[in-house]
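Hi P.,

Sorry for the delay on this. The queue was packed all week, but I finally got your sequence through. Input first:
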Amino acid sequence: MPEKSFRKGGYVRNRKAFFIFIFAIFVLFSSDSRAASLSLLLGGEADTEGQSYVYTGVIGESPLQENLSLMYKLWLDHLTYEFEKDNDTIKAKAPAFQPALGLKLRGQGSSTTLWVGWEHRNTSIKPVRENVEVRGVTDSLVLQFEFDKWTEKSTNFNIIASYSTENSYVWTRGRIKQELSSYPLGRDLPLRIGLEAVGQGNKDYSAFQVGPLLEIYSLKKNASFLIRGGYKRSSSDHSSAYGGIELFFGF
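Then the structure:
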């Protein structure tokens, strides 16, 4: 990821971010608003160009009506990447947290979720260069759209798109998965196979990646392990391979 993928904020709003964090914890775990169900997501991705991303997410869901739920999310992640500056290779580390609220609308075998969140990210670089803009703390409003659809033949379509106001950064992902247990040859195999495509970027940086995925799920479908990988191309004229894993637990 290049130098200008994240723009340094003009004011370090640590106090605001701290109170948002405390509010998110209160919403997720207070006795008066405890979610009817919780999900835990863990995962990470790395490529051969020195970029990696790991995350932990807790998502809660409280039904409001038969087909409408209030959603809560607390997301923690850690991003690392490299870029060239003044003939030096700069290594950046950028941990972040993001509390968010959302609404989920359920349809016939499908769901649509709209999220509004606040991301607090702190980027450090090594070696330190005063003329590098990405250093420091940024706070950003994050808007996210999710669509998920299961067909009668156990085919899943999933689309996610998010937008960050701090640097006009857009991240999109589309996936298609098929349960092998829906076919005679895979009836006793709790496996899903599929394909994903990811596009991301802003005016300073963009990247596209595509590759296959394989998912193993529990018979109760409240846990799964997914492995994925493929080809990645960025606007920095770099081509690389990438790989990642994802774990899901529902409670």
